[in-house]
Write a structure and sequence with these properties.
The complex is a heterotrimer. Chain A is α+β, with helices and mostly antiparallel strands. Chain A is built from eleven helices and twelve strands. Chain B is of the alpha/beta class. Among the domains of chain B are: about 40 residues, no CATH class; about 120 residues, no CATH class; about 35 residues, no CATH class. In chain B, helix 11 packs parallel to helix 13. The longest helix of chain B is centred in the N-terminal third of the chain and has 17 residues. Chain C is of the alpha/beta class. Chain C contains nine helices and 15 strands. In chain C, strands 10-9-8-7-11-12-15 form a seven-stranded mixed beta sheet, sandwiched between helices. A six-stranded antiparallel beta sheet of chain C has the order 4-3-6-1-2-5. A two-stranded antiparallel ribbon of chain C has the order 13-14. In chain C, helix 7 runs parallel beside helix 8. The N and C termini of chain C lie far apart (about 35 Å). Classes of the chains: A alpha+beta, B alpha/beta, C alpha/beta. Chains in contact: A-B, A-C, B-C. The interface between B and C is small, with 3 and 3 residues.
């Protein structure tokens, strides 16, 4: 796979060219001054001075509200979803890697999820390597890194005056080929600079010993630490909804008149009603059981089922938890 | 006002003593969190752990939210017979005290099972305002200087001073009772409560916009909502075992972030807060997408105050008007619409005895 | 093209049968609208399906009929929550959606050549009916050894499938014992809980597999008695219930440890369950 490059000043042109083919989402500043993925037509200037988006881009593959079935006079129909391609530019490597975790659940595990499959197939992810990690980042401790390209089709790396573009999949190769004359071959110097910048970013991320957490969790089911952590948990959905790998959902029917839909919505294992039976029995009755489920699922059960930790170290849960919970603290000591 | 580090020392000593003398089974306070500009709740049971307690400009969380669940009877009747509710010690600011008073009035807590350690609050820092003040630079650590301002160390090693007044949480700027109205022990000096009028001013400012503009503002604000329920979960007054907004029979509101469901969620919650919301700001603080969840509840609180002269949480002997019934309550409004005070009269215009719109 | 696993097969309720005196348990006989669906829906006893009413929702139910009963499916539903209440209020002719079959069935391969002990209590007998019908079918009977079934309910009025039970009592290829907690006038079966009957019959664990379905209390005591009788953990088969939504292991709700009750269960041996956390 040959690497390409484009100068910073030509980035808008690149996005414009992609815009001829599909919907383009690229980082831009919203009214609040936060950088978010804006689209489907990217008009404003591309903002590259951000750490990561507040919300993860998982909504592009697993929307928060997704119609599964349309009802018309009681007859069920699959909704039609436009086939127009979607290009996501500027997704951080942690969020792209999360997509490969979601692939394991929705594409590889039998039966495949057709809704997810369609969105994944029509979406091309151009990840942008990180140069400025923050203290809540811990991607390197969960198998990822600021220059990791897993889950992405192309990995872009910001250099002094240009962007290096590294194809990661056949789709990525095709996208770069489509961009044709806008790109030039990457020079060995550019490749070297990219690797150096990535290494510099890696060095700034404090490692957390997670790999042996997975092992320790295997015999930590009855640890008193779960109660201590569960005491603080408020039972909101911030961690799950902001997490790029969390995928739990609910399915409900909505009807008005004779028309209606069956809709899939994001759900959260920390919600008290998540496992409540109609009989009133709840296998996870208090925050302690629910917090344990959260950590076990991501760091133990997912490894048993998919050989991948369902955490990419993006740090959103740490930054946004209203109770100041930090699962790195728990992982360091659990089962020790 | 007593300096923070002095309060911190007093607090640690007090908590240690209460636990050691078994006057409390559990002490609720704050400790240092893993990221700057915030603290994490601390549940202490061992006296020697009292050293972990912190008192600084980032102790903004309302710990009263944890109290109802500590006092809730276990579902299993056999367990309930064995367990007695714990005696809980807690450090509390003015806003926390208002929540505790309101919860006691609503029979969610037992006063005799609480040991309240009051501190006059100088106002707490809003994490997002602080982050914006350092212009998005990474902060390695933050503390307090002798003037009560925040000293932050940014990623390149430089130190920055952030004036506390400029990064104070909105709720703190509006707070009328920084002195806890209910307490068993008082740490540090008292302060005088005063009404800055900021809350009224802000509500009036918003209310002065034309209706279309206000609605557009609400829609823009609510369109960011991701239905994480953090505002509700962080609110000490939202303790219902089966929240209306989660019910399936009937299903009042769907799950998901559809704008009509989001709007109903926020409107219903605001109305359920009327006459109960203590304006602590926990909702706005918890929101991950920056919705000012206080906007509606603040307006409704002011309406209740105007109609009934009632300020939630400020007097434990006061009677919450919307959850009590007196035999001599006026009932003519059911049969005599003209007796409904303006601006609620169906004709819309201020008539006898009402406030001007 | 692979079928969309979220899309239900359209079906029709052809008959509603009230099973118990309290009238809160009904059996629904369903037929697929499209014969192709019936072809695709090949199940084994122990499996479940998600039934849905458009605009109401979806819920998982054990399949109460055996695949040897052709042309229809039976689901027995107890009225508990939103969906079941709505289902209980509809009449024959109502359209209904069926997704499935889902889950791991009873281990029929292992059960071949074995004696079978079936112990059921109350409402949980649904998939056991399917299992018994399957075993008793002439095409299958010779593949299995003896069949001893114990079924108990609070009162005789609460026993389900009364016609099937009467029919089975007349057969000599099944030894059926019915019991009620409180006998009423005219009751000729046992009186006492299921475990009392089990202990009285003393079935041998030799070359025998036991399937146990019932409320948690019954299961607890039955497992104890089976242990005393010498049954090993891998010879005891259970079926679990969990709150489910997707039924295909994606929505993350029904797991016990790393196993999903909808995919890796609902049938588990006692040995498998012991290796999972007790969170159910």
């Amino acid at each position: 796979m040959t690497e390409k490059r484009i100068s910073h000043t030509d980035l808008e042109g690149l996005l414009g060219r992609l815009g001829e083919r599909g919907d383009v989402f690229a980082p831009g500043k919203d009214e609040g001054g936060d950088v978010v993925l804006m689209g489907p037509r990217h008009d404003g200037p591309v903002a590259l001075d951000y750490r990561n988006f507040r919300l993860s881009p998982k909504a592009f593959l697993l929307p928060q509200n997704q119609t599964l079935i349309r009802f018309e006079d009681g007859k069920a129909q699959e909704p039609s979803v436009p086939d127009r391609e979607t290009f996501l530019f500027g997704v951080r490597p942690c969020d792209a890697r999360a997509m490969s975790a979601l692939d394991k659940v929705f594409l590889e595990a039998d039966p495949p999820d057709p809704y997810y499959a369609q969105l994944r197939a029509k979406t091309a992810v151009i990840a942008l390597a990180c140069t400025q990690p923050v203290s809540s980042c811990f991607c390197t401790s969960v198998g990822g890194g600021p220059g990791d390209g897993a889950g992405a089709d192309v990995l872009a790396v910001e250099l002094e005056s240009e962007l290096l573009l590294r194809p990661r999949t056949a789709k990525g190769e095709e996208v770069l080929a489509f961009l044709g004359d806008l790109l030039t071959e990457a020079t060995p110097a550019a490749v070297k600079e990219a690797d150096e910048r990535i290494r510099a970013a890696e060095d700034r991320i404090a490692p957390v010993k997670i790999d042996d957490s997975v092992q320790r969790l295997g015999h930590a089911y009855d640890s008193p630490l779960w109660e201590a952590a569960g005491q603080k948990c408020l039972g909101c959905g911030i961690c799950s909804f902001l997490c790029p790998t969390c995928h739990c959902f609910d399915i409900t029917d909505e009807v008005r008149g004779g028309t209606g839909r069956r809709v899939r919505t994001w759900d959260c294992c920390a919600f008290p009603l998540f496992t409540l039976h109609a009989s009133g029995h709840n296998p996870r009755p208090t925050p302690k059981e629910r917090w344990r489920q959260r950590v076990m699922h991501k760091f133990r059960y997912a490894v048993e089922n998919f050989e991948q930790v369902f955490c990419v170290g993006c740090g959103r849960c740490v930054r946004n938890c209203p109770a100041g919970m930090d699962l790195r603290t728990l992982l360091k000591t659990i089962g020790a | 006002m007593t300096a923070s580090h002095e309060i911190e020392t007093l607090l640690r000593e007090t908590a240690e003593k209460l636990l050691r003398e078994k006057k409390v089974n559990l002490f609720l306070g704050y400790e240092k969190a893993s990221l700057p500009f915030r603290t994490a709740p601390l549940f202490l049971t061992a006296p020697e752990d009292a050293q972990r307690l912190a008192w600084n400009p980032f102790c903004s969380a309302n710990l009263a939210v944890y109290l109802p669940r500590l006092f809730k009877a276990p579902a299993d009747a056999r367990e309930a017979a064995l367990a007695a509710p714990p005696t809980v010690g807690m450090v509390l600011k003015g806003c926390d005290a208002r929540s505790v008073v309101a919860l006691i009035q609503e029979r969610q807590l037992q006063r005799e099972k609480l040991v309240l350690v009051g501190v006059a609050c100088p106002g707490m820092v809003d994490m997002l305002k602080a982050q914006r003040a350092v212009r998005g630079c990474e902060v390695l650590g933050a503390g307090e200087d002798a003037q009560g301002n925040v000293r932050a160390v940014v990623e390149d090693g430089t130190e920055v001073t952030l004036r506390r007044a400029e990064i104070l949480a909105d709720a703190c700027q509006e707070c009328r009772t920084p002195m806890p109205s209910i307490r068993d022990i008082m740490l540090g000096t008292a302060v005088e409560n005063k009404d800055t009028g900021v809350a009224r001013q802000r509500t009036a400012e918003f209310g002065s916009k034309p209706l279309d503009a206000r609605w557009a503002c609400f829609q823009a604000m609510l369109s960011k909502c991701i239905r994480c329920n953090a505002c509700r979960q962080a609110c000490p007054m939202c303790y219902c075992k089966d929240c209306l907004l989660d019910q399936t029979r009937p299903k009042w509101v769907s799950a998901g972030s559809d704008i009509s469901d989001v709007t109903i969620y926020h409107l219903v919650r605001a109305f359920h807060m009327a006459g109960r919301c203590t304006q602590c700001g926990a909702c706005a603080r918890a929101c991950p997408v920056g919705i000012d969840a206080r906007l509606l509840a603040r307006k409704l609180s002011q309406e209740v105050e105007d109609l009934y002269g009632y300020r939630p949480g400020e007097g434990i002997e006061a009677t919450p008007p919307l959850s009590t019934f007196a035999m001599d309550d006026p009932q003519e409004f059911l049969t005599e619409p003209s007796l409904i005070p303006a601006p609620y009269h169906p004709a819309g215009e201020a008539q006898q005895g009402g406030r001007a719109q | 093209m692979v079928r969309n696993p979220y899309l239900p097969y359209p079906a029709r309720i052809d008959e509603v049968i009230v099973e118990n005196e309290a009238r809160d348990i009904k059996t629904f006989r369903l037929a697929f609208e499209d014969s192709g669906s019936a072809e695709e829906f090949r199940h084994l006893p122990g499996q479940f399906a998600e039934l849905s009413l458009p605009g109401v929702g979806e819920a998982p139910f054990g399949i109460a009929s055996s695949p040897t009963e052709t042309g229809y499916l039976l689901f027995t539903v107890k009225q508990t929550g939103l969906f079941t209440s709505e289902l209980h209020s509809v009449e024959s002719g109502t359209s209904i959606g069926v997704r499935g079959p889902m889950g791991r069935p009873f281990p029929w391969d292992r059960m071949a050549g074995k004696n079978l002990l079936i112990v059921g209590g109350g409402f949980a007998f649904t998939t056991l009916r399917a299992a018994i019908k399957y075993v008793l079918d002439p095409a299958n009977r010779s593949r299995f050894g003896s069949l001893l079934a114990i079924y108990g309910a609070r009162t005789s009025g609460e026993l389900m499938y009364k016609n099937d039970l009467a029919q089975w009592q007349g057969r000599d290829d099944i030894d059926l014992h019915l019991t009620v907690d409180k006998a009423d006038e005219g009751w000729t079966g046992h009186e006492g809980v299921v475990t009392t009957v089990l202990k009285g019959l003393k079935p041998s664990p030799q070359n025998t597999l036991a399937i146990v379905c019932g409320p948690p209390v019954m299961i607890r005591f039955t497992l104890y008695s089976l242990g005393e009788l010498g049954f090993t953990d891998d010879a005891i088969i259970l079926s679990l219930e969990m709150r489910m939504k997707c039924g295909i292991g994606k929505c993350g709700r029904c797991n016990i440890g790393s196993k999903y009750v909808c995919k890796d269960g609902p049938v588990f041996t006692r040995q498998e369950l012991k290796s999972l956390p007790a969170e159910y």
